[in-house]
Amino acid sequence: MSKIRLYEMAKKLNVTSKELINYLKDFNVEVPSHMSTLDDEVVDLLNEAFSDEDEIVEEDFEEIEKAKTKKKPAKKKTKKKVITIEEQLTVARLAEKLAIPATELIKKLMDLGMMLNQNAPVDFDTASLLAEEYGAKLEMKAAEQDESESVEIEEEPENLEPVPRAPVVTIMGHVDHGKTSLLDKIRQSHVAQSEAGGITQHIGAYQVELEGGKITFLDTPGHEAFTSMRARGAQVTDIAILVVAANDGVMPQTLEAISHAKAANVPIIVAINKIDAPGANPDRVKQQLSEHGLIPEDWGGDTICVPVSALRGDGIGELLEMINLVAEMQELKAPVDGLAKGTVIEAKLDKFRGPVATVLIQKGTLKVGDPVVAGTVCGRVRALTNDKGQNIKTAGPSTPVEVLGLGDVPHAGDLFQVTTSEKQAREIAAKRLSKEKEEMQKTTRVSLEDLFQQIQSADIKELRLLIKTDVQGTAEAVKQQLEKLSNEEVKVVAIHTGVGAISESDINLAAASNAIVIGFSVRPDAIAKKAAEREKVDIRTYRVIYDAVEDIKKALKGMLAPVYKEEVLGHAEVREVFKVPKVGNVAGSYVLDGRILRSASVRVLRDNVVIYEGELASLRRFKDDVREVTSGFECGIGVDKFNDIKVGDIIEAYRMVEVDQ
Question: If we measure between CA atoms, which residue out of 346, 386, 393, 322 comes closest to residue 167?
Fold first, then answer.
């Protein structure tokens, strides 16, 4: 007969997998997990025992012992070496801690889709994953308790009884592999029929109701749940669903998702999506997954792989069943009494309702009227809204809820806590804000202006650059030219090169690595600019490689003395293009921010890539020539010696201003 898995046997006998594992454990039959296959003798005995609802007799025990001896002897477990670290590690330092060559570690990182050199920093999750592979466990040294935290919330009484709670699931995977479509299909299939029009309000998370209980899904970018939230100490996810397209296979972001989920020690269920698409090959996906440590259950491993079609709805029921099965094995519980604690999933400023935070409650019960603190923000709960858009009075563990009443917008990943009083909430928020400001003041970013001083004071031994260009060929050329500038005192390292506009993620990486951003024929988008200001990241944009080489050469020698600095005046979006006889194309534009001056120089940006740089030929309001047009007004713009203007282009006005030397 074909082998049966433990969870299938449990389902057949109408008991839980956990009960069956514990039952067999009493007879010294070790079953590692719910995915383990059972020998025929054990299956027969379990059938006999549970069908008669009698206890197993001595003869049965002897039979189980015989079945057990047929199994291969288990490998002797070795105790993992624990490595305690105090701060973020570089690749070289991690290799040193693990007693392996740095080159070996770099190869491992390449397998995970991460191109890092030995001096590049490694985030804690990835470092933990790598340490696991070498039989070691990485732990971050706990920070000493600051006296300023003495105002924190009192410990909960120990007699609070934990009760079963719904699993919290995050869906991860490569872009365009169908994460959003899968979430939408689950939501459409399992919302209550009584909801008006079957429409569920989007609050960043939602619950579905099944026969086996509820499941909470986080409708946020997958990596967000594992990186920024975990960095803030919030472990919100119980199960990770890895979506892989059957027609596309494992991609770089898929590998990134695997590494984050493994490092967070979260069980992974693979949803092989798009099985109905042309060129779909689920077996190829399984082969690729097995190469990265996820062995499918039907290949003898313990990774659940479910073929699904988010388009047609195939396999959705089985996927939800597998989520419940894995959750059952985890025995997820939390107390419903006591002061509520949770994590901010997302937050925004609503012009009608004020600051709104989506919170996932993790323990206790949140009530309307509770005084609360979230990170450095405090307030009193004015209203609670569930994922169906209904106003509710209370919210228990694993419940996603929208909270109104905070004084400001908190950050995603902030710890959300109920306090004993509004006064205590204000005190905690104030202490945290003060501490945050102190930490920010301690942070010094490298810039070309102060590079020489930092080299002289031995504060910097390495100049890290993040390079973004309009085409790949330029990126490689720039990298080679700049890295050649290394000398005995400081090494120039390009930590990342890429193509396209300078994005917020580029700024975050530069901030984490203390790097300078170098852009060639590309510009930062609006969000990236704000992030750079906030994180104090130096962005340098160029049109000629020679200029960048000269700037860095002078900075390394302490001779960089900028005489002029660029001042961006404003941006206008091209809404219409008019052909004017004897003049050419004129851009009917709307000024998005700042102002456009007739005397300004301009750049034409298409998808944040510079396609032309020059001067204004004309600036008009209706039929009148004007000196300037400010934000919120329309105007006609003529760009000197440039006729290829298109709807959607952004015209950036700037001028060079003299800087005090």
Answer: 322
Q: Compute CA distances 615 → 160, 496, 565, whole Å.
A: 71, 33, 18
Domain ranges of the chain: 4-70, 81-140, 161-335, 341-416, 451-561, 566-658
More confident residue, 264 or 429: 429
- What class has domain 4-70? mainly alpha
Query: Are domains 4-70 and 81-140 of this chain identical in fold?
Result: yes
Amino acid type, 268: I
Residues forming beta bridges with residue 381, ordered by sequence position: none
- Average pLDDT, integer, range 77-84: 69
User: The pTM is what?
Assistant: 0.56
CATH architecture of 81-140: Orthogonal Bundle (1.10)
What is the C-alpha to C-alpha distance for residues 547 and 169, in angstroms, rounded to an integer? 50
CB atoms within 10 A of CB 498: 17
Q: From the CB of residue 207, how many other CB atoms can be counted at a distance below 10 Å? A: 21
Residue at 353: amino acid letter: R
Which superfamily does 161-335 belong to? P-loop containing nucleotide triphosphate hydrolases (3.40.50.300)
- Helix, strand, coil shares of the chain, percent, nearest 5, are 30, 30, 35
pLDDT at 87: 60
Q: What is the CATH number of domain 451-561?
A: 3.40.50.10050
pLDDT digits (tens, 9 = 90+) for 152-178: 565 555 567 889 999 999 888 887 788
- Residue 208 has a pLDDT of 86
Nearest-angstrom CA–CA distance, 382 and 102 = 54
Amino acid, res. 344: V
State in words which class domain 341-416 has: mainly beta
What are 233-271's pLDDT values in tens digits? 567 889 999 999 999 898 877 887 787 787 778 899 999
Q: Determine what percent of the chain is predicted with pLDDT higher than 70.
A: 81
Dmax (CA) of the chain: 104
3-state secondary structure of 530: helix
Residue with tokens 């994953």: 129
Cβ contact 557:580 at 8 Å: no
How large is the average pLDDT for residues 25-35? 76
User: What is the model's pLDDT at position 455?
Assistant: 63
pLDDT of the residue at 266:
87
Predicted pLDDT of residue 224: 57
* Residues in contact with 143: Cβ distance below 8 Å, sequence separation at least 6, in sequence order: none
Q: What is the rounded radius of gyration, in angstroms, for the C-alpha atoms of the chain?
A: 30
Q: What pLDDT, in 10s, does the model give residues 498-525? A: 788 898 878 877 887 788 899 988 888 8
Classified as helix, coil or strand, 35 is coil
Pairing status of strand 391-392 against strand 377-385: antiparallel
Closest CA to 381 of 350, 356, 406, 345: 406
Token pair for 92: 């070289």
pLDDT digits (tens, 9 = 90+) for 178-210: 888 888 888 776 554 434 333 334 567 888 888
- Segments in 148-281 forming alpha helices (H): 179-190, 222-226, 228-231, 252-263
Contact 343, 238 (CB under 8 A): no
Judged by DSSP in three states, 552 sits in: helix
463 phi and psi angles, rounded to 5 deg:
-100, 110
Classified by CATH at the fold level, domain 566-658 comes out as: Elongation Factor Tu (Ef-tu); domain 3 (2.40.30)
CA–CA dist 330, 237 (Å, integer): 12
